[in-house]
Design a protein that fits this description.
Number of strands: 8
Structural class: alpha+beta
Order of helices and strands: HEEHEEEHEEE
Largest sheet: 6 strands, mixed
């Protein structure tokens, strides 16, 4: 009986290993669900990035700052966008303001004109939940590649 049990367990183990290593064909119309923890310190981002280098095209394709690390209904309600005017040797800092979290046409135009290596500063960022008061979150910078 003991040998029969051992033989049965060995057969089950072999069947499991064969099944685990079998190739899997993806379904044509498959869907997947990703669950993520909600909560933590809210942060404003640009395409999910902060304090990094991004290609100008990627920055231009972003329409707004987004909030991560908190409830899904949090949105950027306003922010300030600053940059150093090229050729001013760091003396002319220009600041533009968005009052709804979206890039303004002036911001988009200026980003398109700035050379690689320019640093974009996002500061004075306020976020708001549908039922709450706006609150400030930390700013960040993006260097254009």
């Amino acid at each position: 009986m003991k040998q029969l049990t051992t033989l049965f367990l060995a057969a089950v183990a072999v069947a499991f290993l064969v099944a685990a290593n079998a190739p899997v064909k993806p379904a044509k119309n498959a869907t997947s669900t990703v669950e993520a923890a909600v909560g933590g310190k809210p942060m404003a981002t640009l395409n999910g990035k902060r304090n990094t280098t991004m290609h100008k095209r990627e920055v231009m394709n972003a329409k707004a700052l987004r909030v991560i690390g908190c409830g899904p209904k949090m949105k950027v309600s306003e922010f300030k966008f600053s940059y150093v005017e090229p050729g001013s040797k760091g003396k002319a800092v220009i600041t533009l303001t968005s009052e709804n979290g979206l890039f303004t046409s002036k911001m988009r135009k200026k980003i398109g004109e700035l050379p690689a290596g320019s640093i974009l500063y996002f500061e004075g960022i306020k976020i708001k939940a549908p039922e709450g008061e706006p609150r400030k979150v930390d700013g960040f910078k993006i260097t254009l590649a």
